[in-house]
Amino acid sequence: MSATHTVRLCHLYPQLMNIYADRGNIAVFRQRLAWRDIGLEITEIGLGDVIEPVQHDLYYLGGGQDRDQNLVAKDLIANAATLQAAANAGAAQLYVCGGIQLAGHSYVTADGTELAGLGILDLTTEAGGSRLIGDLIIDATVEGMSQRVVGYENHVGRTHLGPNCEPLGQVVSGHGNDGESGHEGAILNHVIGTYLHGPLLPKNPWLADILLAWALEHRYKKEVALRPLDDLVEARAHDIASARASIKR
Amino acid sequence: MLLKLRPNAVAEYAAGLPHGSMLVSATNGKTTTTRLLAAATRVAGYDLVTNTEGSNLERGIAAALLKGSRCADLGLFEVDEAALASVAASTRPQVVVLMNLFRDQLDRYGELETLVDKWRDVLDDLQAQSEPPTLVLNADDPNIAALGRGRRNVVWFGVDDKSHAIGNREHAADATTCRHCGAPLNHRVVLVGHLGHWDCPNCDSTRPTPAVSATKIDLTPHGQQMTLRYPGPAGSPVELAIASPLPGVHNSYNIVAAFAASWALADRTSRPQQAPAVARVMAETKPAFGRGEVVDVDDKQIQLLLAKNPTGVNQNVRTILSNPGELNVLVLLNDRTADGQDVSWIWDVDWEPLDSRLSSLTLSGDRAWDLALRFRYGGFDMDNVTVSPDPTKALDIALAATPAGNTLYALPTYTAMLDLRGVLTQRGHTAAYWSTDR
Ligand SMILES: [Zn+2]
Predict the structure, then answer these.
(1) Long-range contacts of B266-273 (CB under 8 A, 24+ apart)
(2) For chain B, which terminal residue's Cβ has fewer other Cβ atoms within 10 angstroms, N or C?
(3) What is the mean pLDDT of each run of 10 residues along chain B (438 residues)?
(4) Which domain covers residue B422, as residue numbers?
(5) Which residues have beta carbons under 5 A from ligand 1 (an ion)?
(6) Which of B110, B177, B335 sits opposite A68 (nearest CB)?
(7) What CATH number does the domain located at A6-248 have?
């Protein structure tokens, strides 16, 4: 049986940016497409690689350790124009944890060094004094729909949004972007940045399906219907994570 | 309590030990290695004061010293990775054994890189002592090797036998770039996680040649036989056969590390190592609490394999797969403080090789449904999978699915193991853990 549709995923630096189970997000993309008889082609980008323009419908960048993230930051800039053009063309992009920091304009490290980012999301990040760690629950709004999203956060960066992007959601429990604003993540058209891992997508399949719908729309220039799936296991894990987060630990 | 009343208690007691102290730290294997090293030093005639598993922070070491330092002449302490700085500062050790660093409980430690940097500061601090300690370091972990680069007083250990290599670095491998120059490392041989034979294609960083190494390893489901090579009295290499009931290549590293440390101690104190006696006591050293111990339950057996982090569980999966036939497996995931509250690590484990061999899979613990998601998105046949968050019920379900005469393989996180042990103790199948032999 050959798939009638295929999504082309560009996975940025999977060897270096994979610390908080980013692999789980990729598994969700693959399986939720497979269960609907839709194919997934993955292109992995490593240090020094050039991203081919226009060839991908979905981009993913996860989180890494500081040292690896600094290596990636320098390398990524060479691909900034390609990634910006893809975002402008409506391709879906998901930036998680270290990813959201690199998608912004800049990251200022603890010693004051400023690292340039992609500038695709209108935000800046600076290192804070302490790590923001723990269960994180937000009420996310995407395409006018609102849903509770659960996960875990662990970051030293404090992210501040500019006027040209919206927060992905409002913090219900946890720290979010900076521990103060009540904002979590960022969204601009089909580009999403977030600190939520755990990983993010297995317990929040709603968000996965939105990203996949955007990717299919980018590829086929029209809406491709995604058959609903039986998400009972996802719902149970979501509700238990949500209950754990409301217990102060 | 003791530390509150006498903040320098550890330093005072440790200073009174005639042969000083040995410290053992690692992400994985420190408990088992400390057990092996305790046996190896006792048989060489030392009177040990040592801490027991689960008390590897400074207060646990203080308690051990308070109890046992009067009649002891040597301290041997398993040290939590994050506590190495404070314990090293107060004990001023003679021998420091550093075995590996893997990603583990990221919510507690922050990043692995941060730990490597802290350990470097510890070694720099110790180097300034009037008599710097002997460092017993794993040549096969690129991060540990970088810590020893350019230092004297290093005894390198490693595994030279390449026959147990896996095809690629595991997904959970962390040390993928050169600490010295940042270039992607070349792993010629991968044995466990990112442990193996490596070099940097861009600079002169390369795996140091180990002085103490396993040159041949034969694995069985219930242990291993090893040929170990180490420097003899005249400096020429000597070979020694060691048998051990500890399974897996990860335990090969523990055995080699313990032997190397006892060799380093002998070199330092000019008291003979008694190598044949060391080999004999290692053959008698059984798995530590929950690290592969087997419990009889009526006409079946349960093997307890503590599930701590991706690299550790990957080793457990390899151990389970080395058994013939269909497999019955119970995984228990809790997210309490001692387990790590961030359960995302289960996604980094390579569970997939189990799929085609499973007869039954039972999932339990506070976060049993997160496990169910992991296996669902791993493409497992979910008809074989039962989810039961209550550990007692899950144990009954898993045992019922295990045929008579067979083994149930249980992989619990730390607090889930305590829960499971509690049930087994209550039913009279095993002694309470505080009274088992250590
Ligand atoms: Zn190098």
Answers:
(1) B266/B44, B267/B134, B267/B155, B268/B94, B268/B95, B268/B134, B269/B19, B269/B94, B271/B44, B271/B45, B271/B46, B272/B44, B273/B40, B273/B44
(2) N
(3) 71 91 95 96 95 78 83 94 93 96 73 88 93 96 96 96 87 82 91 95 96 96 92 90 95 98 93 93 90 90 93 93 94 94 94 95 98 97 95 98 97 95 88 44
(4) 291-435
(5) B 178, 180-181, 183, 200, 202-203, 205
(6) B177
(7) 3.40.50.880
